[in-house]
C-alpha cells in the first residue's frame, strides 16, 4: 500500500482528540450508513431475503388533517414530514409482503439521529413491539391487523431528544437482521410537549398553551413608561423550513445531540447563538443609527425572513436591536414546543459593574457628565420568558425563566443570558444559575446622582429608588392587550418584602455600595417635576417645569434644562436644547415655567425611535442644594393604513393596499415598505424613490391566502428620516 492511499484513508475519518472513542455528535444534519443486511456470520448459499417477512410500505399518517398532526397539535407546520410531540402516542401502518405471524416473525423499529448513534446517548432507539404502552417511555403495540397490514401505536419517551429522527424497520432472520432502506419520507420530527405531564415543559392551562406555543403572531411593547407604544410581530414558527432552520441553530451552537432533550441547555445555548457576537450567530446588533449593507432593525416585521436568510447564508443577518433578538428567540422556542413569551421591561438598567446602582455623575452646572457616566437606562428592553421545570434548582424555582438573546454582557465567556428563574429574582435568591444577578439589576437598580466638589470629594445629590423596572409587561393571553407582570419580578416598592428580597440578593453576592447617609441630605421642602406635552413627529411642543415650595422661605432656583436625542438604550447621541432661567419660588406656593421645543431644533438629528431624554436640574441659591430629575419621552409616529378588497377566502385571490401620508416638512427619500401575514402572504417588499410633504403613497398587492381563520397583516415603512412606522390589520379568512 503506497503512502498516498493511506493518507487518503486517514482523511476520511473525523478527527479524534484522544478523549473519546467517537467524535462528538452535535449535528442533526449528518447521518451514518445503516446496513440493510446485518449478517450474524457466514450466510448460506440458498439464503433469499424474500423468503422472510419484509416491509413493502410504511404509512406515517403525516397529512395535516390526519390523526397524528391533529392529536399532537402540529397540523399548522408547513411541512410534508411527520411532526409529533414527545411522551404521547402516534400511529403508523406497515404493509408486509405477507400476513404477519407473531409466533414466528420478529420485527422492531429503530429511530436514529445524527452520525454516531449510540443507545446510551439516546441517539439510537430500538423500539420493541409489546402488549402495553407505558406512559412516557418508548414502546410500540399493534392496534389492528388485517391481511398483510398492521397498525402500530408508538409511544416516545417524555425526555427524548428533540430533533429529526430517521426511522428503520428491522426484521430478525436466523442469518442476520434485514432492514428497510433509508427513506427520508419516514423521517420523524420530535418536539417538546407542553400537553404531556411528564415533559419538563408541561403547561397545564389550554388557553396558555394556545397562546405561548401555537400563536404565530405577537405584540412588542416599546416606547417608554409614559408613552407605551405597541407593534405586531410575526413569529411564523410554522412557516416552511422554519423548523429545519431552528434545528440548524442547535447544530451551529454545537450542542451535543444527547443534550437536546433538556430545555435548560437548549435555552442557554440558543441565547448565545441568537446574537452574532463570539459565534457568528443569527443577528448582528447595531445601535448607532447607521445600517449600511443591511436592514434597519425597525424595518423587520417578523422572524421568518431573518431565520431563512441565516439558514441559507450561514452568515449573521444585519441588523437587530433588542425586540428583534427577542422576536426571533420566541419563534425558536415556540417552534420547538417550549412555551415562550416576549417581555418588555420599561426603564431597564444596564449596570456595567452589577453593583445594583447606576452612577450618574453631574458636572458643575448640574448636567450629566457623559464622559465618566458609564451606566445607562434603556427606555425599554425586551427579553423572553420560557416555561420549564428546573430540576437543577431547589423546588419552587420552575415556571417562567428569563432568557435574553440581546448581547449586553458576557456570561461564562459568551454573550448570553439565562435561563434565570423569575421566582428566584423576585425573592432575591440570585445565587441560582444562570445570570440572575444581572437580571435582578435590570429591574431593581437605584439611580445615584453625584457631583464632584472642587476639592475632589464626591457629594451625592439624589438617590432615585423607584425609576428602574417600573413596569414589566407582556401580551395578554388570547388578545392583543397588555398584561402587567411587574409583580412576578418584584414586591411592591417600599414594602417590607421588597427590602428583605434586596437584603437576600446582597447576601448572595450582588454588590451594593453603601452610600454614606451623612453626605446625602436632599432639599426636602421643595418639589420639582416636569411634564412633556404629547406631540406628533415634526411639530413643536413644550416642556412645563413645576416647583412646589412647601417652606415659609423665599427661594431662588437657577434652573437648567438639557434636551438630548437618545438611542432607546439611553445612550445620548447629542444635546439639541440648552435652556437656563432663574425661578423665583414664593413661600407655600407652586409655580410653573414653559420651555418651547421647536421641530427645527430636533428634526435633523432625530434617531430611529424619536426618543428624547430631558434633564432638569435646579440649584437652590440659598441652600446650595440641587434638585435633579430626568425623563425619557417619545414622539407620536404616524401609522400605515392597511385595507383589503375582494372576498377573503382561502385559495382565492384578494388584494391588500397599504397607504401612508407624509406628515414631515420635508420629502422622504428611498422609502422601503414591507408587508407580511403568516398564512396569507409571504413577505413582500417595495421601494419608492420619494414621498413629498403631505402627499399620500398607495401600494397594492395581490395574494392568495393559504389558511382560513383570524389572521394578521403587518406592514412597516422605513427610510433614513423616518423609522418605526407600522400598521396592522386583523382579517378573517373564510373556508372555501
From TrEMBL:
Annotated spans, Disordered: 1-33
Residues where Ca(2+) binds: 444, 446, 493, 498
EC number(s) per entry: 2.3.2.13
GO CC term (a single one): extracellular region
GO molecular function (one): metal ion binding
Coiled-coil segments: none
Cofactor note: Binds 1 Ca(2+) ion per subunit.
A biological process from GO: blood coagulation, fibrin clot formation
Cofactors, names only: Ca(2+)
Catalytic site: 322, 381, 404
Family matches, as InterPro entries: Ig-like_fold, Ig_E-set, Papain-like_cys_pep_sf, Transglutaminase, Transglutaminase-like, Transglutaminase-like_sf, Transglutaminase_animal, Transglutaminase_AS
Residue span, Transglutaminase-like domain: 314-407
UniProt subunit comment: Tetramer of two A chains (F13A1) and two B (F13B) chains.
Function: Factor XIII is activated by thrombin and calcium ion to a transglutaminase that catalyzes the formation of gamma-glutamyl-epsilon-lysine cross-links between fibrin chains, thus stabilizing the fibrin clot. Also cross-link alpha-2-plasmin inhibitor, or fibronectin, to the alpha chains of fibrin.
Protein name from the UniProt record: Coagulation factor XIII A chain
Amino acid at each position: 500500500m503506497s503512502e498516498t492511499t493511506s493518507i487518503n484513508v486517514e482523511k476520511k475519518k473525523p478527527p479524534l482528540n484522544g478523549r473519546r472513542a467517537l467524535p462528538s455528535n452535535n449535528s442533526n444534519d449528518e447521518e451514518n450508513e445503516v446496513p440493510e443486511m446485518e449478517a450474524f456470520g457466514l450466510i448460506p448459499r440458498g439464503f433469499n431475503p424474500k423468503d422472510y417477512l419484509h416491509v413493502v410500505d410504511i404509512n406515517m399518517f403525516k397529512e395535516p388533517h390526519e390523526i397524528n398532526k391533529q392529536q399532537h397539535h402540529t397540523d399548522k407546520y408547513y411541512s410534508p414530514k411527520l411532526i409529533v410531540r414527545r411522551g404521547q402516542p402516534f400511529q403508523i401502518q406497515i404493509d408486509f409482503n405477507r400476513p404477519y405471524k407473531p409466533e414466528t416473525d420478529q420485527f422492531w423499529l429503530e429511530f436514529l439521529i445524527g452520525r454516531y448513534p449510540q443507545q446510551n446517548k439516546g441517539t439510537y432507539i430500538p423500539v420493541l413491539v409489546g402488549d402495553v404502552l407505558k406512559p412516557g417511555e418508548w414502546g410500540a403495540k399493534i392496534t389492528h391487523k388485517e391481511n398483510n397490514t398492521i397498525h402500530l401505536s408508538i409511544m416516545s419517551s417524555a425526555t427524548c431528544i428533540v430533533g429529526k429522527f430517521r426511522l428503520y424497520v428491522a426484521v430478525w432472520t436466523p442469518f442476520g437482521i434485514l432492514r428497510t432502506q433509508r427513506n427520508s419520507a419516514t423521517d420523524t420530527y420530535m418536539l417538546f410537549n407542553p400537553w404531556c405531564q411528564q415533559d419538563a415543559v408541561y403547561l397545564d392551562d389550554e388557553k396558555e398553551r394556545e397562546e405561548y406555543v401555537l400563536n404565530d403572531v405577537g405584540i412588542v411593547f416599546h416606547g417608554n413608561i409614559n408613552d407605551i407604544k405597541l407593534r405586531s410581530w410575526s413569529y411564523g414558527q410554522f412557516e416552511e423550513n422554519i423548523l429545519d432552520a431552528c434545528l440548524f441553530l442547535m447544530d451551529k451552537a454545537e450542542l451535543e445531540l444527547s443534550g437536546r432533550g433538556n430545555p435548560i441547555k437548549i435555552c442557554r445555548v440558543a441565547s448565545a447563538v441568537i446574537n452574532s457576537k463570539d459565534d457568528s450567530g443569527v443577528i448582528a446588533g447595531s445601535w448607532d443609527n447607521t445600517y449600511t449593507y443591511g436592514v434597519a432593525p425597525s424595518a423587520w416585521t417578523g422572524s421568518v425572513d431573518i431565520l431563512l436568510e441565516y439558514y441559507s447564508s450561514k452568515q449573521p443577518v444585519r441588523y437587530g436591536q433588542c425586540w428583534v433578538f427577542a422576536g426571533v428567540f420566541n419563534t425558536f422556542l415556540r417552534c420547538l414546543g417550549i412555551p415562550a413569551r416576549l417581555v418588555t421591561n420599561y426603564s431597564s438598567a444596564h449596570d456595567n459593574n452589577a453593583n445594583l446602582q447606576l452612577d450618574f455623575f453631574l458636572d458643575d452646572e448640574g448636567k450629566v457628565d457623559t464622559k465618566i457616566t458609564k451606566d445607562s437606562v434603556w427606555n425599554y428592553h425586551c427579553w423572553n420568558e420560557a416555561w420549564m421545570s428546573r430540576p437543577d434548582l431547589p423546588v419552587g424555582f420552575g415556571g417562567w425563566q428569563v432568557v435574553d438573546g440581546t448581547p449586553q454582557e458576557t456570561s461564562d465567556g459568551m454573550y448570553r443570558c439565562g435561563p434565570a428563574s423569575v421566582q428566584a429574582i423576585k425573592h432575591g435568591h440570585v445565587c441560582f444559575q444562570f445570570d440572575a444577578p444581572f437580571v435582578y439589576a435590570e429591574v431593581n437598580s437605584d439611580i445615584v446622582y453625584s457631583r464632584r466638589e472642587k476639592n475632589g470629594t464626591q457629594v451625592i445629590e439624589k438617590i432615585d429608588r423607584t425609576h428602574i423596572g417600573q413596569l414589566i409587561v407582556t401580551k395578554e393571553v388570547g388578545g392583543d392587550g397588555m398584561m402587567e407582570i411587574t409583580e412576578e419580578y418584584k414586591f411592591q416598592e417600599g414594602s417590607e418584602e421588597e427590602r428583605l428580597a434586596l437584603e437576600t440578593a446582597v447576601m448572595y453576592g450582588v454588590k451594593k455600595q453603601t452610600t454614606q447617609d451623612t453626605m446625602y441630605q436632599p432639599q426636602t421642602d421643595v418639589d420639582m417635576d416636569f411634564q412633556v406635552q404629547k406631540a406628533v413627529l415634526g411639530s413643536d411642543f413644550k416642556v412645563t417645569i413645576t416647583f412646589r415650595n412647601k417652606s415659609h422661605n423665599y427661594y431662588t432656583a437657577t434652573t437648567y434644562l438639557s434636551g438630548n436625542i437618545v438611542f432607546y438604550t439611553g445612550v445620548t447621541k447629542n444635546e439639541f436644547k440648552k435652556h437656563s432661567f432663574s425661578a423665583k419660588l414664593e413661600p407655600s406656593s407652586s409655580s410653573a415655567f414653559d420651555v418651547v421645543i421647536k421641530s427645527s431644533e430636533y428634526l435633523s438629528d432625530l434617531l430611529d425611535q424619536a426618543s428624547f431624554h430631558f434633564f432638569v436640574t435646579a440649584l437652590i441659591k440659598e441652600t446650595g442644594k440641587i434638585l435633579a430629575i430626568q425623563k425619557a419621552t417619545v414622539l407620536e409616529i404616524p401609522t400605515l393604513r392597511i385595507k383589503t378588497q375582494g372576498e377573503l377566502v382561502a385559495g382565492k385571490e384578494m388584494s391588500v393596499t397599504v397607504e401612508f401620508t407624509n406628515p414631515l416638512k420635508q420629502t422622504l427619500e428611498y422609502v422601503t415598505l414591507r408587508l407580511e401575514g403568516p398564512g396569507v402572504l409571504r413577505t413582500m417588499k417595495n421601494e419608492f424613490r420619494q414621498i413629498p410633504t403631505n402627499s399620500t403613497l398607495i401600494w397594492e398587492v395581490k395574494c392568495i391566502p393559504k389558511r382560513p381563520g383570524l389572521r394578521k397583516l403587518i406592514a412597516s415603512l422605513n427610510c433614513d428620516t423616518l423609522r418605526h412606522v407600522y400598521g396592522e390589520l386583523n382579517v378573517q379568512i373564510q373556508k372555501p
